[in-house]
UniProtKB/TrEMBL annotation:
GO-annotated molecular function: exo-alpha-sialidase activity
Domain Trans-sialidase C-terminal: 183-331
Organism: Trypanosoma cruzi marinkellei
Domain of life of the native organism: Eukaryota
UniProt-recorded name of the protein: Trans-sialidase, putative
InterPro entries listed in its UniProt record: ConA-like_dom_sf (IPR013320), Sialidase (IPR011040), Sialidase_sf (IPR036278), Sialidase_trypan (IPR008377), TS_C (IPR055239)
Residue ranges annotated for the Sialidase domain, each copy included: 1-121
C-alpha cells in the first residue's frame, strides 16, 4: 500500500495488485480521506505509515500534519495520529507536543509490553533557525486510546450482527431475517440510540449526525423518534474540512434505515431521506418520500420516477435504502 500527497489537495492511497505489476487507487475507504495544502510553494511532509496487529486486529496507524488556519498567529504544524482497519477511521489525537513538526515516522513493538513510538523532525528551534533535531515520544496514552477504539469497534460489530442472524442460525425457523453475508462487511457508520443535545453519535466513532428543527427528537433504545413538523437529522459526511472520513461516498455507498410512521396528516409527498450533493442547499441527487395515500415516491436528479410498487402502513417497521454506484447511478 502506498500513500502520496497530490496537487489536488488530497492524499491518495494505492494498492498493489497483478503480482506487483500495477498500482490501483483504493477508493473503498482510505484514498482521498486526508487533505494536504495546495500551492506552488507548499513543501510536502513525509508522514508515518505502518501496519500492526493490535488486540488481534490488523490495523494501520498514520501520522499526518494538521495545518493551522492562521500562520500569522505563530501557527505550528502538528502531527495527529489516525487509526484505521481499512473500514473504519478514527482520529486518536496530536502526537508532536508543542513542536513545529516537519516529518514523522512510527514504530510499534508488539508483545505483552507493547509500545508505540513516534519520531518526528523539528522544523525550527526557539530562535526560528532551522533545527535538524529529532524527537522521540512514547505514546502510552495514545496506544491505550487505540485499544479502546478497537474494543468499541468489536462491540458494535457484535451488536449489529445480532440485528441480522446468519442463515445457519435460523435453520428450522423462519428465514425472513436471515443474512447470507456478514452484515458488518463494509459497514462504516452506524447511528442507533446514542443521542443527546442535538447530536446523534456514530457508534463506530466516525462522523456524527446533527438533529435540528423545531420539534423534539426522542431517544429510543435502538434509534431516534422525530415528533412533529420540522424535525430532521443531517449526517454531514462531506463537511469535515480537509479530512473527509467518508470520501468514498462521492462514488459508491449504500444508506440503509429502519423506519416506521405514525399517522400522516400532511398532503403530498413527505421526504424521508435523501442525498444532497455540494451542500449549502445544493440540489438533491436522490430522495425517498412517502405520502398520505400509503405510497412511496423516489426523486432522482430532480425527476420523479414511476410510482413504486407496494406501500406502507402506520406503526409498521420497514427497511429502506438509498444506493449510489459509480458516482452517478442512484436507486432507492
Amino acid at each position: 500500500m502506498m500513500m502520496t500527497a497530490c496537487d489536488d489537495g488530497r492524499r491518495r492511497v494505492y494498492e498493489i495488485g497483478d503480482k506487483g505489476e500495477s498500482w490501483t487507487e483504493a477508493f473503498g475507504t482510505l484514498s482521498r480521506v486526508w487533505g494536504n495544502p495546495k500551492g506552488e510553494n507548499v513543501k510536502r511532509v513525509r508522514s508515518g505509515f505502518i501496519t500492526a496487529t493490535i488486540e488481534e486486529s490488523e490495523v494501520m496507524l498514520v501520522t499526518l500534519p494538521v495545518y493551522p488556519k492562521d500562520k500569522g498567529d505563530n501557527g505550528k504544524d502538528e502531527f495527529h495520529l489516525w487509526l484505521t482497519d481499512n473500514t473504519h477511521i478514527s482520529g486518536i489525537g496530536p502526537v508532536s507536543c508543542d513542536d513545529d513538526a516537519a516529518a514523522s515516522s512510527l514504530l510499534y513493538k508488539s508483545g505483552n509490553n507493547d509500545e508505540l513510538i513516534v519520531l518526528y523532525e523539528k522544523k525550527k528551534d526557539s530562535t526560528d533557525k532551522p533545527s535538524p533535531g529529532m524527537v522521540s515520544v512514547l505514546l502510552k496514552k495514545e496506544l491505550k486510546r487505540v485499544k479502546d477504539v478497537l474494543t468499541t469497534w468489536k462491540k458494535v460489530d457484535d451488536r449489529v450482527s445480532q440485528l441480522c442472524p446468519p442463515t445457519s442460525a435460523t435453520q428450522g425457523t423462519s428465514t425472513d431475517n436471515a443474512c447470507t453475508d456478514k452484515i458488518t462487511n463494509g459497514l462504516v457508520g452506524f447511528l442507533s440510540g446514542n443521542f443527546s443535545d442535538g447530536t446523534w453519535r456514530d457508534e463506530y466513532l466516525g462522523v456524527n449526525a446533527t438533529v435540528t428543527g423545531a420539534a423534539e427528537a426522542t431517544r429510543t433504545p435502538d434509534g431516534v423518534t422525530f415528533t412533529g413538523r420540522g424535525a430532521w437529522a443531517e449526517w454531514p459526511v462531506g463537511s469535515q474540512g480537509p479530512n473527509q472520513l467518508y470520501h468514498f461516498a462521492n462514488y459508491n455507498f449504500t444508506l440503509v434505515a429502519t423506519v416506521s410512521f405514525r399517522n400522516v396528516l400532511e398532503e403530498g409527498n413527505i421526504p424521508l431521506m435523501g442525498v444532497r450533493l455540494n451542500g449549502n442547499g445544493g440540489s438533491k441527487s436522490l430522495e425517498l418520500s412517502y405520502n398520505q395515500g400509503g405510497k412511496w415516491a423516489v426523486v432522482c436528479s430532480g425527476q420523479a420516477t414511476p410510482e413504486q410498487k407496494g406501500g406502507w402502513e402506520p406503526d409498521t417497521k420497514y427497511q429502506v435504502a438509498i444506493v449510489l454506484q459509480n458516482s452517478s447511478q442512484g436507486s432507492a
